[in-house]
Amino acid sequence: MQWTYEMDQCLSKVLAEQDKLGNKSKSDNKLRPAAYAVAVSALNKRFQLDLTKDHIRNRLKTWKKQYEILKGLLHHGDFEWDKTQTMVRANGSAWNRYIKRNPDARSFRGRIIRN
């Protein structure tokens, strides 16, 4: 299954609402089972899918990995955030050097990042 931007937006909105409702543990910052259930139900209903709690967990792991990659890029001196284009910018040689050491960053080269 391929996640879409719209699915990510829906999941993000539902999880933010669940956090506000207290369905996230304060001690370990983990979602409570009720939050997963609401997220699964909302996504399945809106997009006519058959997702499970594991799909949500895996998507959250992907988000965390992407966040760490972006954080690494933006803490590197050769890279900057382009607010207008909503993407990470650097010259070609900087990208080549960075990707050689950090292959997972390749997907962010020239990629527009929405929210």
What's this, in brief?
By secondary structure, this protein is mostly helical.
Rounded to the nearest angstrom, the distance between the terminal CA atoms is: 21 Å
- Number of DSSP strand runs: 2
Task: Provide mean pLDDT, rounded.
Answer: 96
| Shape summary | elongated
Outline the biggest β-sheet: 2 strands, antiparallel
Q: How much helix is in the residues?
A: 55-70%
Order of helices and strands: HHHEEH
**What is the topology, as strand order, of the major beta sheet?**
1-2
Number of helices: 4
Class based on secondary structure composition and strand pairing: mainly alpha
Radius of gyration: 17 Å
Unreliable stretches: none
Strand content: 5-15%
Total domains: 2
Pfam families: Myb_DNA-bind_3 (PF12776)
Protein name: Myb/SANT-like domain-containing protein
Domain Myb/SANT-like: 2-98
Organism: Gossypium stocksii
